[in-house]
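queue> pop job 88
queue> type: inverse folding (structure -> sequence)
queue> payload:
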């Protein structure tokens, strides 16, 4: 049976060997000299060989046996490996190292997360991050497939996702988006039936209308555009109108107008989604806590 080597005993051995004495090693370890001597004897018993030559005078320097000389670099190697692992795990527990994977809907990814992530990662230079942005359905799939630690999305039909934990953070209203020179641009609010008179372009967020009185618009749509950049380009070109949540509306647009959809009023709730039965990594848990605290402050 292999001996169980204690890191503390290895440290005592290295200190005695390097400092050439039990007394100075005891001072370094903040222990008594008898305690260090007992620690070394126990280590020698486990190894089955003596580590230090017997001394005839208390003032004589402590010298290693041939076996001790051979063991010294091995002991240092074990201590170094132990300390590296301990440091890595400590940094991971303090969310300062590791690999964090998250996914978010584009609207929150572009409008909200940059400032939050800048604050969170300011003092975590060793933490690696993989960040994905996609629509809510794709984000939920990444969560389900464990491709990411957690996602930020709207949870359609929450009652159907009993395997997930949803923490609502943000909410925004659905509105109509059209060019500034469009006939609807002068409106302050709109009824959904007014939209049927215009070319309607549906997109990934249009599913938010499914459970509202405005659901007939989805059947009225002749075009579907999934990519936000392409959608904005088509709107700016005057190709038609669409509905978008407020956070998805281009923040600094000078060519498009956002008009709240008043009838019906459709609110989107966005939050953090993760698997209920899977533990989060320390960095993921820390980031979630940070987002929740920052958003409630």
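queue> result:
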């Amino acid at each position: 049976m292999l001996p169980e080597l204690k890191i503390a005993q290895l440290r005592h051995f290295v200190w005695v060997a390097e400092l050439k004495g039990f007394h100075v090693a005891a001072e370094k370890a903040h222990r008594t000299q008898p305690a260090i001597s007992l620690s070394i004897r126990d280590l020698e018993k486990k190894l089955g060989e003596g580590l230090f030559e017997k001394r005839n005078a208390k003032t004589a320097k402590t010298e290693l046996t041939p076996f001790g000389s051979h063991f010294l670099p091995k002991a240092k190697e074990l201590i170094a490996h132990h300390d590296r692992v301990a440091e890595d795990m400590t940094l991971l527990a303090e969310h300062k190292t590791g690999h964090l994977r998250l996914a978010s809907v584009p609207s929150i990814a572009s409008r909200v997360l940059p400032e939050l992530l800048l604050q969170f990662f300011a003092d975590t230079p060793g933490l690696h991050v993989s960040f994905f942005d996609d629509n809510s359905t794709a984000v939920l799939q990444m969560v389900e497939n464990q491709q990411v630690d957690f996602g930020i999305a709207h949870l359609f039909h929450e009652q159907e996702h009993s395997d997930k934990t949803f923490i609502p953070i943000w909410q925004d209203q659905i509105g109509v988006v059209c060019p500034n020179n469009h006939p609807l641009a002068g409106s302050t609010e709109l009824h959904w039936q007014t939209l049927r008179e215009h070319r309607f372009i549906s997109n990934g967020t249009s599913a938010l209308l499914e459970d509202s009185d405005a659901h007939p618009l989805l059947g009225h749509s002749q075009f579907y555009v999934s990519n936000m950049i392409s959608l904005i380009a088509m709107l700016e070109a005057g190709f038609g109108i669409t509905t978008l949540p407020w956070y998805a509306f281009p923040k600094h647009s000078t060519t498009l107008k956002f008009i709240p959809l008043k009838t019906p009023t459709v609110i989107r709730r966005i939050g953090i989604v993760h698997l209920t039965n899977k533990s989060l990594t320390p960095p993921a848990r820390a980031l979630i806590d940070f987002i929740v605290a920052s958003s409630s402050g």
